[in-house]
Amino acid sequence: MPVHDVAGYVDDSIRSVLSQGYWRVDLVVVDDASEDETLARVRRWVRRDPRVRLVEASFRDVNAARNLGITHARGEFLAFLDGDDLMLAGALRDLVGSLQATGSDFAVGGYDRLTDGRRTPPAFWIGEAHRRDRPATKVTDFPEIMVNAVQWTKVYRRWFWDSAGLAFPSGGHFQDQLVSASAYARAERIDVLARPVVAWRIRSDGSSMTQQGVRAAQVRDRFATAIGALEVLERESIPDVHEARLGQFLGYDAAVATAELPRMGGDAYIALRDGLGALAPEANHPIWNVVPAEYKVLFELVLRDDRERALEYIARGGLDLLRHGLTRVDGVDYVRMPFWGDQAAAIPLVRFRAAPRELRAFAQASAH
């Protein structure tokens, strides 16, 4: 558990681990140069419970802190939790129990969001990936699980972590992407659990690292780690897995980043434009068929550096799919997003092509 200035949350996070009903826990808390009461609170836990150990560091880098914690860990299994999140009841029991039953290399569960003390579901793609238990599966059989790229939903066999050469790259953000890509590619078998195992705290002040997505450095890191993860999968897995992850990055990660355009300054926008240009394949690549039209049109505008129209597109509800209608041209379904038929904008028709998930959304809406 890496911690830095989380005095308001760290007691609950530590308590969530120690109250798992799983006595054989070795909790290594790495305090990374906290300037608030975090360190004092962890020290109190160390005095109260022999399962808690404190390591002090001054990296100011959560990835380096995690790596240091790993060197101090003594367990047969290895798990991670950020110092402001909560491990849900029974999580270790179910994750470790699954690994003991199957012999898989690591297990991955879902997660919930925690906002102002209230648990809510995660993004829909996490829910879909964890729709049911999938013991002893392979990423080649179920590449959909790669959307769960965070580390705090996983329990690894320590020998697998070490033998696979896994470690967090120091510096930057979203480095979970690189670790997860390597783990998914190198694992023989993976246990996918349907249940959520962590409540991911969404801080109301937006101060957690994963919530700071509109700064230029973080935008650059988001795309750099995506590209790095794809390179890992291209080298170490089969083409279908690489293609599936590319579609996920375009349809989810890049979409989330691009939707933040109205909150971006000039440097962040440049990082977005350049990152998207490096990630996006050629215009006729078949992977575009699975990317939603609502994002394909927006990507087109950003890629051609038409920021003004991109902002107008969002303002006109371009990211509100069901405000717009379906139409069929030559047997193909398209979504009449903003700039449909606008000759001045000159957006290629193929960018409006409906993706399967959009067709499902329209079908569900019409059914209700």
Order of H and E elements: EHEHEHEEHEEHEEHHEHHHHHEEH
Cα-based radius of gyration, to the nearest Å: 22 Å
Low-confidence stretches: 209-213
**In DSSP terms, counting alpha (H) and pi (I) runs of 4 or more, how many helices?**
13
Taking all residues together, what is the mean pLDDT? 95
User: What structural class do helix, strand and pairing data support?
Assistant: alpha/beta
Strand content: 15-25%
Query: What's the helical proportion of residues?
Result: 40-55%
Identify the overall geometry. Answer: globular
**N/C terminus separation:** 45 Å
Sheet having the most strands: 7 strands, mixed
Number of strands: 12
Task: Please describe what this structure looks like.
It is a single chain. The N and C termini lie far apart (45 Å). The strands form 3 sheets. Strands 4, 5, 6, 7, 8, 9 and 10 form a 7-stranded mixed sheet that branches. It is built from 13 helices and 12 strands. It has 368 residues and is an alpha/beta fold. Strand 2 (27-32), helix 2 (38-48) and strand 3 (52-57) form a beta-alpha-beta unit. The model is unreliable at 209-213 (pLDDT under 50). Helix 7 runs parallel beside helix 8 (216-236).
Key phrases:
alpha/beta, 7-stranded mixed β-sheet, 3-stranded parallel β-sheet, 13 helices, 368 residues, 16% strand
